[in-house]
Design a protein that fits this description.
The complex is a heterodimer of chains A (123) and B (110).
Chain A: E1 4-8, E2 11-12, E3 18-24, E4 33-39, E5 46-52, E6 57-59, E7 67-72, E8 77-82, E9 91-99, E10 109-113, E11 117-121
Chain B: E1 9-12, E2 18-23, E3 35-39, E4 46-49, E5 63-68, E6 71-76, E7 85-93, E8 98-101, E9 105-109
Parallel strand pairs in B: 1-9
Antiparallel strand pairs in B: 2-6, 3-4, 3-7, 5-6, 7-8, 7-9
The chains are: A mainly beta (123), B mainly beta (110).
């Protein structure tokens, strides 16, 4: 059973940088995209972006300018960095694995998720 | 606001059939398959329906999905108390070049 365990700072001040890491307990990164999503309290899910082990990425255009995603195959970890955070970035953040063809984004779906972590941005 | 439109809530009594709608546009539901997830707060979302109407292994046949034009729907028959959860639809949007979601529908079993 694949298990995703995520961690990172839970309380940030405006203008600081959000950093989260997700560790995958088994298997290979190869053949999948690895994604970050978030859900502001009381609102719907928002896709942040996804990355595969070849370094190919898809980013939410509204976040792209502040976003870095990386993947460390030696540690079976992938990470999210979001700079210049504001209160609007307050949300539950999830990491997840995408199953499906690497060449067609619309045919990939989330099959495993991390437990989620609340990130609050407040002065 | 969410790109895909879902009713915020739905309800039914045990044994009833409930349908949850997901409305989009030609660039998302009209062009790409829809996936439905069940999310019980405190746990990870679970895939219920893949590619509009396919049930992954382990998902009861009480759950079914359909898609027509720019809309999709999830039907739950023989409603049970353990079906009480949030349900959201998801797909890819070719114009936004992004994965998009519905806001989620909170299902209450009365």
């Amino acid at each position: 059973q694949v298990h995703l365990q995520q961690w990172g700072a839970g309380l940030l001040k405006p203008s600081e940088t959000l950093s989260l890491t997700c560790a995958v307990n088994l298997g290979s990164f190869s053949g999948y995209y690895w994604s970050w999503l978030r859900q502001p309290p009381g609102k719907g899910l928002e896709w942040i972006g996804e990355i595969n082990d070849s370094g190919n990425t898809y980013f939410n255009p509204s976040l792209k300018s502040r976003l870095i995603m990386s993947l460390d195959t030696s540690k079976n970890e992938f990470s999210l960095t979001l700079s210049s955070v504001t209160a609007a970035d307050t949300a539950f953040y999830y990491c997840a694995r995408l199953q499906g063809p690497l060449t067609v984004a619309g045919l990939r779906y989330f099959d495993y998720w991390g437990q989620g972590s609340l990130v609050t941005v407040s002065s | 606001h969410s790109v895909l439109t879902q009713p915020p809530s739905a309800s039914g009594t045990p044994g009833q059939r409930v349908t949850i709608s997901c409305s989009g546009s030609s660039s998302n539901i009209g062009s790409n398959p829809v996936y439905w997830y069940q999310h019980i707060p405190g746990s990870a979302p679970q895939l219920l329906i893949s590619r509009n109407n396919q049930r992954p292994s382990g998902v009861p046949d009480r759950f079914s999905g359909s898609q027509s034009g720019t809309s999709a729907s999830l039907a739950i028959s023989g409603l049970r108390s353990e079906d009480e959860a949030d349900y959201f639809c998801a797909t890819w949007d070719d114009s936004l070049n992004s994965r998009v979601f519905g806001v989620g529908t909170k299902l209450t079993v009365l």
